[in-house]
Write a structure and sequence with these properties.
homodimer; about 400 residues; alpha/beta; Aspartate Aminotransferase, domain 1; Aspartate Aminotransferase, domain 2; seven-stranded mixed beta sheet; 13 helices; 12 strands; about 35% helix
Chain lengths: ~400, ~400
């Protein structure tokens, strides 16, 4: 009998996508489903970004350089300069989505059995890349009561062992929306220096900060060799399908090793590199409009949630996610029930149970993540459903 | 002191790309370099394939399904049907290049320390994916004298241990151009049944067969659970930069596990899926023209090589590579010398030393791989250079 591998068995299914069959069944019954479950923005990809691809006139769809087109990397240098991160074109490897940047980081800096500390709740796919790289994720819990701020340094240090090689943060955070303060980033700097760790900083949502600006890991001084920025154009320009990201570090040994992984997979996608390159030339006010839209959605969803009896939603400083604590017995059951057994005016809402974002079993059972990737009218419709659902749900606490 | 991982250190650099700095230096001196070193075809990507992307009119560049767009997978079912491989749309996962299909195979079917047997010389990047998956590559040597036919079954069986989980073949073969016969495929079937192994079949060059047709691993009957086809549009439609491939198997457990890896990286690139889907509608005679072009190149390069004193080049049955044995001391030195110290009429040729394609140290020192991805005029120019170089090379044997 042929067997699949242990890691194939251990690989977690996507917690965000596991409810999809229930949503499909609801739609078949004619129920409208508001999708607040995944981070696929409804914002249009800027026309000039798509047009750059549509107007391209090459004759052969060739491999690009394994690190990405030089012309694109030169543009990225300008982009990073504009956000106060000083790198040159050889310190950037263009990746196939932010996903590949994360995988390259794990593969390059950690060996099988090594440990990576991640504040939980965290982006669930980190688990998948950890299984692929045979790395152990060690969660350190952040709490909804404090808005998911960085856990106290002592809590993080308690988790450090001889096997710990890196800390991963996502800033602003998916799934919590938390924006790390400069003081918190300086605390992280102290830890990585003291314990000789890498800091992997997933900055997919850099531009989407609603209370102040992002303090990037790339702004930390004196720890350039420790810091790897994992980046992507997916959310920044609403270009998720492009699958273009970046692996950015000033650590030469890490770059050299990561380049070998990059060469093995030959090159990142060519079409979307054209899109990414064009995006750098978007007018300076491009993010203003998008940010204003997301901010109005955030303000609405947070207000609506906190107005519901027994619901608590801290105000997220960035990204386009909110985490809410609900008066329910079990978020997984509740989210399934919303799709399977509930509708209000023939509509319902799809949410992501928070359990999939925690590494510690049992946590997040009363929490859900809401991606505010729909317009305010839709958000109001979704919140009407949720409010009514919480009244009807048999497992209400 | 921060360290990179062991696997980062073990990761082999690309043997095909390591001579690039010497080629760049030659070009700076004004020397024209014929690139027979990499499999980047000069054939134009079909206009209708590129136009499908250019004429696309979506507004949001969204994530696709993690297994690839359903519309594309349905088209792929038709394509596979046309080459005698019967699968349904749920037995296909669209991947980011053939590269990702190989990685998914290793990750899904093998654990750290497991072994995979590969006839050598083999596509060098298998080494890279093996390091990423912490899998041991066990080479079994094929020989230039027999045109790189499948090694005798006994030789393969000698290599099988309790850790052996799979055999990888590339058919038609990169780097040798060898096309496995139906009889050889049936021998492989016997081995995988007898020893309960997976057969990973890299069929990137399926259409490019000049002596008869490909007998696909997908044509083997009764071993459907053992067979995984790793595929790509890169060479088929000269669309290397698209980064679209496919992982094809009828083994449900393998599919389920591979889907979890696919979900972790979210989706394959969206633009090039449009290209891949359009390519299925190319006229039936599309490959005739391309094949005729490659065949005339093959005929020329093989004739020119065998006409040189001391050179032997078996006639490759498929793909667009030829391996030649040269009267030289060391292929790595020779290929570097061609770029660094030689020119003929201000031109030279870049070849891939075969050493990088062998897993057994010391093999391939007198062999080079030639990719016939240039037109016949350029091939004649390149062969003139090689002929002259072999007369002048100080390490001639």
């Amino acid at each position: 009998m042929l067997q699949i591998s242990q890691r194939g068995q251990q690989m977690p299914p996507s917690p965000i996508r596991k409810l999809v069959p229930y949503a499909e069944a609801a739609k078949k019954k004619g129920v409208k489903v508001y999708h607040l479950n995944i981070g696929q923005p409804d914002i249009e990809t800027p026309k000039m970004v798509l047009d750059a691809v549509r107007n391209s006139d090459f004759k052969v769809l060739e491999y690009s350089h394994s690190a990405g087109n030089e012309s694109y990397r030169k543009k990225l240098v300008k982009y990073y300069e504009s956000v106060g991160i000083h790198v040159n074109q050889n310190e950037i490897i263009v990746t196939t989505g932010g996903s590949e940047a994360i995988l390259f980081g794990f593969m390059t800096c950690l060996d099988a059995g090594d440990e990576v500390i991640i504040p939980e709740p965290f982006y669930a796919n980190y688990n998948g890349f950890a299984v692929a790289a045979d790395v152990k994720v060690v969660p350190v819990t952040s709490h909804i009561e404090s808005g998911f701020a960085l856990p106290p340094i002592e809590e993080i240090e308690k988790k450090i062992t001889a096997k710990t090689k890196a800390i991963v943060i996502c800033n602003p955070n998916n799934p919590t929306g938390y924006l790390y303060s400069e003081a918190e980033m300086q605390q992280l700097k102290e830890i990585i220096v003291k314990h000789n760790l890498y800091l992997f900083s997933d900055e997919a949502y850099r531009e989407f900060c609603y209370e102040g600006k992002q303090f990037s890991a790339g702004h930390l001084t004196g720890v350039e060799d420790h810091v790897i920025i994992m980046d992507t154009i997916s959310k920044r320009y609403s270009a998720c399908g492009g699958r273009i990201g970046a692996f950015v570090t000033k650590n030469k040994s890490v770059l050299d090793a990561a380049m070998k992984f990059a060469q093995a997979r030959l090159s990142p996608p060519s079409f979307a590199q054209i899109a990414g390159e064009a995006a750098i030339d978007l007018p300076a006010d491009y993010f203003d409009t998008t940010k204003a839209e997301y901010k109005s959605r955030r303000d609405l969803i947070v207000k609506r949630l906190n107005a519901m009896e027994g619901v608590f939603c801290p105000n997220p400083g960035g990204a386009f996610y909110a985490m809410a604590k609900l008066p329910i017995d079990d978020a997984d059951k509740f989210c399934q029930w919303l799709l399977e057994s509930f509708s209000y005016k023939n509509e319902t809402v799809m949410l992501a149970p928070a359990t999939g974002f925690y590494g510690t079993p049992g946590l997040g059972k009363q929490e859900v993540r809401l991606a505010y990737v729909l317009n305010t009218t839709a958000i109001n419709g979704a919140m009407d459903c949720l409010e009514e659902a919480l009244k009807q749900y048999p497992g209400r606490k």
